[in-house]
Amino acid sequence: MDALLESEEPESEETGSGDLFERLNFVVDRHQEPLRIDKYLVTRMAHASRTRIQQAAESTLIRVNDHPVSSNYRVRPGDHIILFTTHAPDLTEIIPEPIPLEIVYEDQDLLVINKPAGMVVHPGSGNYSGTLVHGLAYHLYGDQVGKTAVPRFGLVHRIDKNTSGLLVAAKSASALNDLAGQFFDHKVNREYQALVWGDMEEPEGTIRGHVGRHQRFRKIMDVYPDGDHGKPATTHYRVLERFGYTTLLSCRLETGRTHQIRVHMQHAGHPLFNDAAYGGDRIVKGTVFTKYRQFVENCFNLIPRQALHARTLGFIHPTTRKEMAFDAALPQDFQLALEKWRAYSRRH
Q1: Does 33 share its domain with 51?
Q2: Which residues are part of the catalytic machinery?
Q3: 288: domain CATH number?
Q4: CA 183 to CA 315: how far, in whole Å?
Q5: 28: which of 79, 229, 249, 332 fits an S-S bond (Cβ 3.0–4.6 Å)?
Q6: E-strand spans in the chain?
Q7: Shared-domain flag, residues 180 and 195
Q8: Given phi > 0 = left and psi -120 to 50 = alpha, else beta, which region is 10?
Q9: Smallest Cα–Cα separation from 133: which of 94, 172, 104, 105?
Q10: pLDDT tens-digit readout, 164-218
Q11: Cα 180 to Cα 291: distance, rounded to the nearest angstrom
Q12: CA distance 133 to 308
């Protein structure tokens, strides 16, 4: 389903990761006459069509007082309406492609995929084929999409092209709706591992700051004071290993903003190792000696991307209500870079 309204911060996979859903909240005025909810929402939302709102209701993406409703529900004074909107492309326009996927779990409701670095998640500007979504369409429906089968799957969140790790995809509208709610309510456990420049002073801590589109360079994000720009973002970190000039961190997300860990770490003065967008693809800490510069270049060559991996993912299964937990080991490029830094820190 297409987006119901334009995003405040338009994203493409080329430039952004983060949660793919927004949650809009409305409280019906106490003087409101009974009115179909699709008509009511059209009057309250810019760039929304009644057809899109009806599609959202069919996909159980509209809740009134915490219960899904149909498009002919008549709003009443005091009703609390929650509408989930997505910026994902219309999946009926996806042409399936036989792209290899590392599926670590699958059942009738969902899949968990371990995405390699370099793979784009969703189609977007400059990436109209070869994405994880194209591979998912083929895995689920073969070449029948757009012919006899209607795709019913979707991602609630995404990770950057050059970030590796775990993603969950829903195979039904009800599973998608349930997982979206868990992401919004901060009930999903997401842990990333990141190699950052510098020696973190504290063994653990929290970085808070609104994350929004950079005012001059629209392809990257920036951190702003509360209320100025962007949306609230919280990242909790814990030191796993110290190498002197770099540190391996565990990062847990409360929110899922575009480039959140990357921009928060840059803001804290510790950009991710080899993160070209946020200043990590140069020597940030260390010596001026030629041998050190060569060592860093060798590490850059081992992991030619930002050193960030979505390591663990945990959520409540939308149907069984059981706790699900998944772990994806660091990929080889990340492991090789860490081994180089371990050896260097032992020698020095």
Answers
A1: yes
A2: 160
A3: 3.30.2350.10
A4: 9
A5: 79
A6: 18-19, 21-27, 35-36, 62-64, 67-68, 74-75, 80-86, 103-106, 110-115, 154-155, 157-158, 164-170, 189-197, 204-208, 210-213, 221-224, 234-242, 246-253, 308-316, 323-327
A7: no
A8: beta
A9: 94
A10: 999 999 998 788 878 888 887 888 999 999 999 999 999 999 999 999 888 777 7
A11: 49
A12: 21
pTM comes to 0.80
Note whether residue 13 is domain-resident.
no
The two three-digit tokens of residue 255, written as one number: 């929110």
Average pLDDT over residues 263-281: 96
Beta bridge partners of 272: 196
CA dist 99 and 137 (Å) reads 10
Rounded to an integer, what distance in angstroms lies between the CA atom of residue 143 and that of residue 130? 15
Residue that finishes a domain, picked among 31, 66, 86: 86
Residues 253 and 333 in one domain: yes
Shortest CA distance to 39 belongs to which of 21, 67, 7, 62?
62
Range of the structural domain that residue 180 is part of: 91-184
Cα(74)–Cα(347) distance, integer angstroms: 71
- The total number of structural domains in the chain stands at 3
